[in-house]
TrEMBL record:
Residues binding NADPH: S15, W16, R36, Y53, K110, A145, R260, V284, E286
Domain of life the protein comes from: Bacteria
Residues at the catalytic site: K196 (proton acceptor)
Protein keywords: Cytoplasm, Lipid biosynthesis, Lipid metabolism, NAD, NADP, Nucleotide-binding, Oxidoreductase, Phospholipid biosynthesis, Phospholipid metabolism
Record-listed NAD(+) binding positions: G12, A13, G14, S15, W16, G17, A145, R260
GO cellular component: cytosol
Domain Glycerol-3-phosphate dehydrogenase NAD-dependent N-terminal as annotated: residue spans: 8-166
Pathway: Membrane lipid metabolism; glycerophospholipid metabolism
The organism of origin for this protein: Lederbergia citri
Gene Ontology molecular function: glycerol-3-phosphate dehydrogenase [NAD(P)+] activity; NAD binding
The protein, known as: Glycerol-3-phosphate dehydrogenase [NAD(P)+]
The enzyme's E.C. designation: 1.1.1.94
Amino acid sequence: MGNEKERVAVIGAGSWGTALALVLADNGHPIQLWTRNERQKDEINDRHTNEKYLPGITLPDKIIAINSLEEALNGIETVVLAVPTKAIRETLREIIKFQLQPLTIVHVSKGIEPDSLLRISEMIDEEMPKRILKDIVVLSGPSHAEEVSLRHPTTVAVSSKNMEAAEKIQDLFMNQHFRVYTNPDLIGVEIGGALKNIIALAAGISDGLGFGDNAKAALITRGLAEISRLGTKMGANPLTFSGLAGIGDLIVTCTSVHSRNWRAGNMLGKGQKLEDVLMSMGMVVEGVRTTKAAYQLAQKYNCKMPITEILYQILFNDVNAKIAGERLMARLKTNEMEDLVDILSEQMEQL
C-alpha cells in the first residue's frame, strides 16, 4: 500500500488533457480521464486511442475514461483542469457539486477571460469555495500535445502561490521525457502562456500572407516586448518572459504547424473568414478570445501593444490582414531600447 501511486483526475479529454494523462500514467499514476462524449469514452477504454485529438497514439491501460464527473472525482486530491478558458467556470461549478475533500487544481489552459480580465487562477479562486480549494498550480511552457504523446523531450514550468504545491506537481509529472521546472512568478507564467497565442495568430497571418521569415522574427521579438510590457505592469517578473513560459512557449507556438493558433492565423492570412476558420479547426483557438482580453488590458493599463491592437482590428473589425500589416510597419519611428527601459522602470517601481 505504501508504494501505491496517487490517483489523479484529468478533466478534459482533448489533445492536451490526454497527453498529460499519458505522462502521469507513464509515471505510474492511475488516471480518471473525464469526457462528456460517450463515444470518446468507449474508444479510450476499448481501443486505448483518442484518434480525433492524438491520432496514431496508443494510450496506457492506467488511463480510464469516465463520463460521470462525480465518479471521476471520487477519491481524488489532485485535479488537472484541461478545458478551454471559456469552459472553466462552468466546469468548476459542476465540480463543486460533487467534491467534498480539499483539492489541488492544476490548470493547464492558456487564456484570459475577456471583460473580467481575470487570469485562470483568479477565475478558479473566485469560483471555488475555500473549504475545497487547497492549492492552485499552473503548468505552462513550450509543449505541443502531439510531441508529448510521442514522448519527445519536453520542458515546462509550474507555479503557485504555495511553492510546496508547485514542487509536489513537479514530482507528479517529471520523468525522463517531461522535465518540469518550478517558477515562483504565478502572474508571469500565466500571462506568458496566454499572450503568446496572440503573437502566434499574428505570425500565422504573416506566413499566410507570404511575408517570410524576416517578418516572423520581427513579430516574435516585438511580440515578446509587448508581453513583457503588459505582464510587468500587471505585476509579473520580467525575467519570466525570458524563460520557458515566455520566449520558450512563444517560439514553439509561432513556428510550428502543430500550433492551432498559428494554423488559424495562417488561414486568415490566406483570406479565409474568422467564422470559417474556427469551424474548420474543430478545436478551440484560445488566441482569438485572448486577443479581446489583451486589447482591453492594454487600455486598462495604458500599455502600448501595437501587434495586439492590429490583430484585434483584423479579428473583430474585419480589417484586411495585408492592409493591417502595412499599418503596423508604417507606425511612427521609435527606439527599441525605450521598451527595455520602460519594462525595467515598471519592475523597479514594484520593488
